[in-house]
Structures are given as C-alpha cells and as structure tokens.
TrEMBL record, chain A:
Protein name, per record: Ice-binding protein C-terminal domain-containing protein
Pfam families xrefs: PEP-CTERM
SUPFAM superfamilies in alphabetical order: Carbohydrate-binding domain
Taxonomic lineage of the native organism: Bacteria, Pseudomonadati, Pseudomonadota, Gammaproteobacteria, Chromatiales
Organism of provenance: Chromatium okenii
Sequence ranges assigned to domain Ice-binding protein C-terminal in this UniProt record: 179-198
GO molecular function annotations of the record: carbohydrate binding
UniProtKB/TrEMBL annotation, chain B:
InterPro entries the record matches: Dockerin_dom_sf (IPR036439), EF_Hand_1_Ca_BS (IPR018247), Peptidase_S8/S53_dom (IPR000209), Peptidase_S8/S53_dom_sf (IPR036852), Peptidase_S8/S53_subtilisin (IPR051048), Peptidase_S8_Asp-AS (IPR023827), Peptidase_S8_His-AS (IPR022398), Peptidase_S8_Ser-AS (IPR023828)
Signal sequence interval, chain numbering: 1-30
Keyword Nucleus attached: no
Pfam families linked to this entry: InhA-like_MAM, Peptidase_S8
CDD domains for the chain: Peptidases_S8_Subtilisin_like
Species of provenance: Chromatium okenii
Peptidase S8/S53 domain ranges (all copies): 233-450, 756-805
Keyword set includes Protease: yes
Protein's UniProt name: Peptidase S8/S53 domain-containing protein
GO MF annotation: an example: serine-type endopeptidase activity
Length: 209, 906
C-alpha cells in the first residue's frame, strides 16, 4: 500500500472515530396503543390523544424541552394538553399552533422514548374529508438542553419543521331530512320497483315449490 | 361428599412396618412364534426414612405468625392495638437460646448464572442448551446496561441446583453461578398502632430526650441537621422491600413518580418493560404495582422520608423525598434472588434513563447465601453512583464469622448496618462485626408509617358463620366441638372437656365457599379467637384448601382402556395430598407373609420432593406405610408389595396417595391393574374397567399463618389477605389445624365469627417495629439527605457517613461486640462538608432572599420558565444568562443552586 492509498483510509478512520451527534427523533403515539404512527384517520367530533416522544438523547440527559406544533385548526381542535411528566411545563396556544415547554428540576431524561407532552385533538371537519399535517418546530430560546449545558436545538430543523404525522378527518354524514330532487325520486322509484320485483320473485318461487 | 382425609400413621416406623417383596429388578422378554411379550420390570417401593413429607397439611419451616387486630374502642373512639415489646427469646427450659445461623433457603433446581463480558446472548443460550439448562427468566435490560448476560435457569428434570451449578461452572464462558436464595425481612417484631396525630415526641431515634427511658442524646442528631436542610425532593431512594403504601397520608407526597409514564393508560410509555409503573414495580408478584403486601416496606419508607412538618404522624429523616418502591417478596414471605435481581435491574434502568437514584435500602437478608451473581449486580449499581445500604441481620451473630447477605458483600457501595437501642448500645438481637459491619443506627422500637389491612367478618360477607347454627356444614375432627362461651354465644373449641392434650392433631374444616369470580387479592379471611396455647410450642395453623381429585382417565392404561390418574389432563398440584382409598378387603384369615399387593405404575414426580405413597390398614387401626415411589417410570412397571401383619384385618383398605411440595410439578403417576392376593389366590382385583371400588380424597393446602400463646382472656380478631389466585375457586375451604407438642397443656383455642370478605386498607396508621431493618433506613435516609445537600462522589459520601459517628456503648464489661464504626450522626456528617468557595457565593436562585433556594424559589422560576422578553410572565431575575429567554440554559443554573441552604444574602 502506498502513501496515496493510505491517506483516504486514514481520513475515513478518523471520520468514523469521531463521535457523531445522533439525530433527535420525534414520534407520535395516537390513541395510546403503545405504537408510533405517522398517520391517523378521525371522524367528525372524534377525539384522540397524541403522545409526542423524543428519542436519541444522550447522557447526562435532557433537563428541558420546548417546541411548537402546527396543525390546521379548521380540521383539528385541541381540547386537552398535558406535560405533567416535567417538573415545569407551559403551554401557549395561537392560531393553528401550540407552544410547549417543560423542565426537570431534579432528574434528567436520557435515551429513547421520552414522553414530551400529550395533546388531545378533536376532528372538527363537518363535511367531506380534510387532512392536516402535525409539524414540529423548535421553539424560541434554548429548549432542548442537557444537564451539562449542551444545547440540542441545532439538531432540529427550524425552517420546514419535522413532519410528525398526517391526520385526516372525515366529516359527518348528512343527518338532516333533505327534499328529494327529481333525479333522486327517479332512483327511488327504480329502487322500489326493483324491490317489488324481487319480492314477487321470491313469492312466485315459493308457490312453485 | 368430599371430605378431608388425613393419613394417620401408626407409631411404628416406616422401616419396621413394611416388608417389601424382593424381586429381581430387571427387564426381560420372551419370544413367542407370533410376537414379543414384554415382561414388565418388577419394582420395589422405596423405604428410606427420607420420604417426602406425607403428613399434610404441613406448616412450612418458616411459619408466619398472624398478628391480632385487637380492636378495642377507647373513650375517644380511637383504635388502640397493643402487642408486647419484643423480648429476647429463651428456650423452653428457660436457658438462653444459642446464636446459630439458620440454613439458607433457596429454590432447588434453579440457578442464577452470569456470563463473562463479551459472551453474547446467543452464545450464552447455546452454552446453557449444551447443559440441558432452560432459561426461566432473562434480565435483558441488565444485560444491556452491563454487557453481561444474567439469567435464571433450571436444569433437566430431577437435576438439583448443586448439580447444575457444578455443570455450568465447567464452562469457561460462565463467570459465576449461584443458588436462587430467598431472603427475609430483617425485622424482629412490630407492635403498637397509635391514633393519627403528631408523633415526633416518640421518635427517639431522631431526637432522644430520654422519653423512652433511654439515654438523652443517643440519637442521630436530626434537629441539628435540619437547620441545614430538610427537603430532599431532588434525590430518589429505592426501597427494595415488601412494597410501600403509597396512599399513606404521610408518604403520598414523598413517593417517586415516573415522569415517563402516563398513569392508567395501559401502555409502557417509557418502554422500560413495565406498563404503568408509576411508583415502582412488583417483582415478587410480577406486575407494575409496588403496593404493600406486608407492612415492612411501608415502615422502612417512613423512616427515610415520611412527610415532615405537616402536623401529623411522624417525620422522616428527609422531610420530603422521593421513594421508589420495589416490592420483591413472594406470597411465601421470601424474596428470591431472581426477584431481587429484577428489582435491581429496574433501578439501574431508571438510573440510566436519568432518574437521580442515589441509594437502595435493603432491609432484608439471609445467612451463608453468598451469590456472586447478585454481587455483580450490586456492584453495577455502585458503578453508577448508587449506594446499597443493607441490614446486618438480627441473629445476634458476628458477621465476621457468619456472613449475612447482601450486607456482607465486600463492595465499595455496600454499607452494612447494625441496630442500636435508645441507650446507644448495640441491640440485643443485632448482628455485628468489627470488619464486616460498617456502622450502627437506631433500630429498636422505631415508630414509623404502617400498612394495615383489617377485616372484621360480618353477616352478608362472601362467607360468614357466627357458630350459632350448629356445625353448619363444618367437618370437625374430634375433639373439635361447639361450646357455649356465654349464655348467648357459641364458639368452636379444640378441647371441649378442658385443656387440650399433648401431641394433639385435629382439624376443623369449613363447608365449601365459592370465591370464583372475586377479584384476586381483594378478599381476606378473618375470625375471632380467644386462646391459651403454650407459646411457640403449641399452634393453631390456618390453611385455605381446594379440592384435588384423582380420576380414572383414558390418557394411559396398562390394560383395557382406563387407569387412575392423580392429575387428569395436566400436571399435579403443588402443596397437596390426594389419593384413592379402596373398599374394605377381608384379610383377617391370611397368614403372615401370605398377602401381596400388586399394581402397575407409570409416570413421574419431582424426585426427592413429591412422592406416591402406598399404605394399608383402616380408619380404626390406622394405616401402615408400605413405601413410596418418587422416580420416573417411563413404562408400565409392576410393583409387588408384601402386606405386613398389621394390614391383615377384616376390613383392610389400600391407599395410594400423592404428596407434593411447593416446587416443580410433573404429570404424576398412572395406576392400573391393582390386586391383592393371599398365597397366590386373588382376593381383590380392579382393572379400572368396571364398577368403581375406590373413594377419592385430596386437597391443596395453602398455608396462611399460625396462632400461639395467650390472648390474655380476650377475643382477638385475626385476618389475612388472600393473594394466591388459585384459592379463588368455587370450592375453597378454611382449615384450622390444631397441633401440640408433648408437654404443657392449656385451655386451647375458641373460634367464632369466621368469614371471608372485603378487606379495608388503613392509610393512616403508625407502628413501632424493631430490627436492623429499621436501622438500615436511618443510614439510607442519611445518604439521601447528604446527596441532596452536597454533590460529591458516592464514595466520599459513604466515607463521610461512616467516619462521623458517635461511639456505641457496650452493654456491660463483657460486651465485646463491635462494629467498624460507631452510631450514625447525621448532623456531624452534614457539618463535615467543606463547602467550596464557589458554593458559598450568592445563590442566584434565591429569589426571595431568605437564605436558601427552596420550593418557593422553584415556584418563581417555574412561573417564568418558557417566557421571553415582552411577555407578561418574563422575569429578568430568572433569565440568568440575560439572553432574553428563561429557558433550558437558565434551568441548568437554577438546578445547580436548588436545595442550597447556605446562601449569602442577596
């Protein structure tokens, strides 16, 4: 092996031996079934808990968190929120967004599957089907901070955010009594005819037997 | 009708009683022109004196005494329970008892194994497979944290723990093997329950003013320490014990709450292997609820961190703290090593998830049960800064000579604690050791929080009998009888004619009780008793029983289509005695040595522990043992047994009975083609194909506890919780077994108001308990206290505690007992801290300028947390780095000061 071959290998080994900061991973568990999901279908007025988790936190552990989650407030409504696993927690709401912050005053949070907050959504699309993305953005200030003052916020994309999941809401079926239109009257008549025909067939067959 | 049938042996010994035909024990076959005819092996029954226990129901070696609930209303309507102070035991002749280590208790057949670093789980499984060892329980999280494979394994059937350990130890990949020892709480006695009020005046161990007649100042000096620090909410102390009553009014605010878990959602939110583990886990019963199963752990937790200065009850060494509860005990009263290991695995897992666990309290132990696997796990805790504080034991022994574990593990994070009394002497029961026991701490008559369940039987319960309707379905073995205790009240008595007899054994069994469908653990058995028994020599044992019925089955047969099975369609039941008894056979004219019992047998039992016994005789003459079988019979085997003269009766009966213990169960035995011959002529035969000639009997016996001694002429209420789910059948029975020894007789026991119903848990009770179990949490609490006060390496903290002690006074000039250091002095330990100059600077988190950074300051910071300039709740004083946000970096600063009490004025 000559020197020209060795240099790239050395560089590669150096690169491999340099500890790389692991990505922070965010997940949602809809409906508290113990599984992470990236999509959900809701009916009109149906509610679900969305538990938001972070993974990939190294020692000495996270002591604070803060993020903003955006959604289409014509599709979903937030009816409850909780971050009681943190010693301090604050929520602030704005149009189509929820700001969450929390801090631990004694322990830290290390590793994977760390519960950040829980948000209860309700589907509010009255008719048709509408979808919305749940997108996570870093909040203002230093939010994801380790006990040794290392700040992890730079590991979160602040421009386009992190797409946590897509939620579709199916509007409620028509419950009012509509006035039949001429076309539908025709269909109704055809249906009645078909029903009567079938009934007649059944009765005829019965007589033949 | 099913009835309880107890085999009564004649006074002659087993060896002298039975004459077993000596026949060649070899397989043979003869050829014919058409096929091979297998002549079965003719076997003999085993006759050695070490036959497995046959005289069920047997009380276990370590009985548990039922504690009376003497509910006596006083003038104020409070309830006062009193039990005598613990006293040093003496032998029956009045001489002092010798201090002798007890035989270690372990689960035979099981072995804990630890593989060397680098051995993967796959390789480990392969190594275990090569030794025919099966993994009973894995400890994957512990393996993940330590890089070593831990496992609880069993060998092949019939392989003892010792054999398996020997086999595994030969594998170079195995670092250590150990028996699966059972540990007991290191408590001597518990007594008085008191009204719910402020009891600090009784807490001599924290502030000894001579209120108990002891030496003023013989305490751990908490008032002086409290001037420095009180609230230790920033540290977590793990209590591995019998669970904690986390709803106790003096503990509920000092419980650790798992921040990663959502209570009651049925999901393992933090993915630690346990669903809804809010305050800890239960490795003894195998669930996520560390609720108390006995009172011991609740008492220990209160010493560490019962809420202080709240105007009621007691105070812990830490006025506030966080207790992580780990219930590790099994219903039999032991905590086995696998359950302890699972608890330590949980602690290590949560530590690695960021929970600030600084100490483990281990108020339990066992003698000569060194376990290198457990030692490795405890060392792992030390490697992450967790002190392991363990009770030295209550056997009056010198641990330098007789080791008690886990206290005797020579590890840097293990602190071994002896018990002292209110005169600053070592308690009479305490173990000691000049090199093996680190220090002493108060352990005698310690008042703390207590878990208590009560059940007072009454009409309308699941079962209730006030003994006013006669026998009412009870089976009463003579001389049990109903007697009038007053003009209007009746009760069962074991001795209606006066005093009971020497060597009495008699049972009283309830009618069937339907417990099916009831919530497991929700029910208790209760009864009222008035008793005069020779203390510790004569007993009333209490059992719950369920039927175990043999059946004729088509699963196996020697001839025809059917055979008897002790356990149709499955394995037999633990802790049971069941069998069949033949109809009467006239052998009265048979000459000596002429009668022969013949039968075919196939199957297996747990060799050395469970056995099928064969007896003959009758109810009036008693039954003689002919021997037993406890080995595997892979094929149908003919047994031929000569019947002794004592069986040559005009109404002789044959019994086959299976007795089992609490270990492994197997399919049991199948029995077919039974006959009795006299000089070769058949006088009784049954191939199980025609009319049934046998009566079945059998019960599973679940031991619950005992009564001994005197109730002082008063009625006492006893109750105990039913944990065993196998008891919740539609045919359960309460059984009282009266046993006496060969000397001293008394009036005996009267039983009334016997019932089964819903228990009530009391969350506001306190009690005195004594033992190194109580001394240990004083030290554990001190570790937590110091960890909250001052951040330093664990080793320095331990050294600070053990080197700042006060002398322990000898009881007299002959008292040579010693510990490595003296009695804990918390104030001295705290005052020994040499604060760095930086620590004495202004506390930036001291918003209210009161000299400390406490919960009031936390409230101020919390209100501002997450805000930025321009917002109403922004607080510039909380924005320590002045970057316009009160965010995570400011929280780092606040955390560094939180808990400080020595702040300079702002």
């Amino acid at each position: 092996m000559n020197i020209n071959q060795m240099i790239p290998i050395t560089v590669l080994l150096f690169a491999l031996s340099t500890p790389a900061a692991a990505d922070l991973i965010f997940n949602i568990d809809f409906g508290r079934d113990g599984s992470y999901e990236d999509s959900l279908s809701l009916d009109f007025n149906e509610t679900t808990w969305a538990d938001i988790y972070i993974s990939g936190v190294e020692s000495p552990g996270l002591i604070s968190m803060g993020f903003k989650i955006t959604y289409d407030d014509s599709v979903l409504e937030i009816i409850n929120k909780d971050a009681s696993g943190w010693d301090f927690s604050k929520f602030s709401t704005a149009a189509s967004s929820l700001m969450v912050s929390g801090g631990m005053f004694s322990d830290t949070r290390i590793g994977n599957d760390i519960l950040l907050a829980s948000v209860q959504f309700k589907g509010i699309t009255a008719t048709g089907i509408a979808t919305t993305a749940l997108t996570l953005f870093d909040g203002s200030g230093d939010n994801f901070v380790l006990d040794n003052k290392v700040i992890l916020d730079s590991r979160i994309s602040t421009s386009s955010g992190i797409n946590l999941a897509g939620v579709s809401v199916t509007g409620a079926p028509i419950t009012g009594t509509g006035i039949p239109q001429p076309g539908s009257l025709l269909l109704l008549a055809a249906g009645l005819f078909g029903f009567l025909f079938a009934k007649n067939r059944i009765e005829t067959n019965a007589k033949e037997q | 009708m099913r009835h309880s049938y107890f085999t009564r042996f004649k006074s002659s010994t087993l060896c002298a009683a039975a004459i077993v035909s000596i026949l060649p024990a070899m397989n043979s076959y003869s050829a014919s022109s058409t096929d091979l005819v297998l002549t079965p092996t003719v076997m003999t029954l085993k006759q050695d004196g070490s036959a497995p226990v046959l005289n069920h129901p047997a009380a276990p070696m370590n009985r548990s005494q039922l504690v009376p609930n003497n509910v006596t209303p006083n003038a104020q309507g409070d309830r006062l329970l009193t039990v005598p102070e613990p006293t040093q035991p003496s032998s029956k002749d009045g001489t002092a008892t010798a201090s002798t280590p007890k035989k270690p208790h372990y689960k035979d057949g099981e072995v804990l194994v630890l593989f060397k670093k680098g051995v993967t789980k796959i390789v480990a499984n392969s190594a275990l497979g090569a030794k025919a060892a099966t993994v009973v329980k894995g400890f994957d999280q512990l393996t993940a944290r330590t890089g070593q494979v831990f496992a609880l394994v069993r060998g092949g059937k019939g392989v003892s723990s010792a054999q398996l350990m020997k086999s595994l130890s030969k594998d170079s990949r195995v670092q250590a093997t150990s028996l699966n020892y059972g540990k007991r709480p290191t408590v001597v006695a518990s007594d008085t329950l008191l009204p719910n009020d402020t009891f600090f005046q009784y807490q001599w161990s924290l502030n000894n003013t001579g209120q108990t007649g002891g030496t003023s100042g013989a305490d751990i000096q908490t008032p002086a320490a409290w001037t420095q620090h009180t609230d230790s909410k920033d540290v977590v102390i793990a209590v591995v014990d019998t669970g904690v009553d986390y709803e106790h009014s003096d503990l509920k605010n000092s419980m650790w709450v798992n921040p990663g878990e959502i209570a009651g959602d049925g999901v393992d939110n933090d993915k630690n292997g346990y669903i809804d583990d809010i305050h800890g886990i239960d490795t003894g019963f195998g669930d996520s609820d560390p609720a108390a199963v006995f009172a011991h752990g609740t008492h220990v937790a209160g010493i560490i961190a019962a809420e202080g200065n709240n105007g009621k009850g007691v105070t812990g060494i830490n006025w506030r703290g966080r207790i992580m509860a780990l219930q590790g005990f099994s219903p039999d009263g032991y905590m086995y090593d696998d359950a302890e290991l699972a608890a330590l695995q949980y602690i290590l897992t949560m530590k690695n998830k960021g929970t600030n666990i600084v100490a483990v309290n281990a108020s339990y132990g066992c003698y000569e049960c060194e376990n290198s696997v457990m030692a490795a796990a405890i060392k792992n805790l030390g490697d992450v800064g967790i002190a392991f504080v363990a009770a030295a034991g209550n056997e009056e022994n010198d641990n330098d000579d007789y080791s008690s574990y886990p206290a005797s593990y020579d590890l840097p994070n293990v602190i071994s604690v002896a018990a002292t009394d209110d005169t600053d002497s070592l308690a009479w029961y305490s173990n000691y050791g000049a090199t093996s026991v680190d220090l002493g701490a108060p352990g005698s008559a310690i008042l703390s929080t207590y878990w208590l369940t009560t059940y007072i039987p009454q009409a309308g319960d699941v079962f209730f009998d006030d003994v006013e309707l006669g026998t009412n379905g009870w089976f009463a073995d003579a001389p049990w009888a109903i007697t009038a205790t007053t003009a209007t009240n009746h009760a069962w008595t074991d001795s209606p004619a006066g005093d009971y007899s020497d060597d009495q054994f008699s049972v009283l069994v309830s009618p069937p009780i339907n417990l099916a469908g009831q919530k497991i653990g929700s029910l208790s058995v209760g009864f009222n008793a008035r008793h005069e028994l020779e203390e510790d020599y004569d007993f009333l044992d209490v059992f719950l029983t369920n039927p175990v019925i043999w059946k004729m089955t088509t699963e196996q047969k020697h001839s025809g289509s059917k055979a008897w099975s002790d356990s149709p369609n499955g394995n037999y039941t633990n802790n049971s005695l069941s069998g069949i008894i033949s109809q009467g056979i006239d052998l009265s004219t048979a000459p000596s040595d002429s009668a022969m019992l013949n039968f075919y047998l196939k199957g297996r039992a747990e060799t050395g522990y469970d056995a099928l016994s064969v007896l003959c005789g009758n109810e009036s003459q008693g039954f003689e043992s002919l021997g037993y079988v406890d080995f595997e019979l892979g094929d149908w085997t003919l047994f031929q047994v000569s019947l002794p003269d004592t069986c040559l009766l005009d109404d002789a009966k044959i019994i086959f009975e299976l007795g089992t213990n609490g270990g492994t169960t197997f399919d049991g035995y199948y029995l077919d083609d039974i006959s009795v011959t006299v000089n070769g002529a058949t006088v009784f035969t049954d191939d199980m194909e025609g009319a049934n000639k046998w009566q079945t009997f059998g019960e599973k016996y679940s031991y619950q506890g005992y009564i001994t001694g005197s109730s002082g002429g008063a009625w006492s209420n006893y109750s105990f919780q039913l944990f065993d789910k196998s008891l919740y059948t539609n045919d359960a029975r309460i059984m009282f077994v009266f046993r006496t020894d060969g000397s001293v007789v008394e009036d005996g026991v009267y039983l009334d108001n016997i019932g089964i119903g819903q228990m009530t848990v009391e969350h506001d009770f306190y009690a005195w308990m004594s033992g190194t179990s109580m001394a240990t949490p004083h030290v554990t609490g001190a570790v937590g206290f110091l960890a909250s006060v001052f951040d330093e390496p664990m080793a320095d903290r331990i050294a600070r505690i053990v080197t700042t002690t006060d002398p322990i006074a000898p009881v007299d000039e002959t008292d040579s007992r010693a510990t490595a250091n003296g009695r804990l002095n918390l104030a001295k330990a705290v005052n020994s801290i040499e604060w760095p100059a930086a620590a004495l600077a202004l506390c930036v988190g001291n918003f209210d300028s009161d000299g400390d950074v406490d919960d009031a300051d936390k409230t101020v910071f919390g209100a501002a947390f997450g805000s930025r300039t321009g917002q109403a709740r922004y607080n510039a004083n909380a924005d320590f780095d002045k970057d316009g946000d009160v965010d995570g970096t400011d929280l780092v600063t606040f955390r560094a000061d939180y808990g400080r009490t020595n702040c300079l004025a702002r």
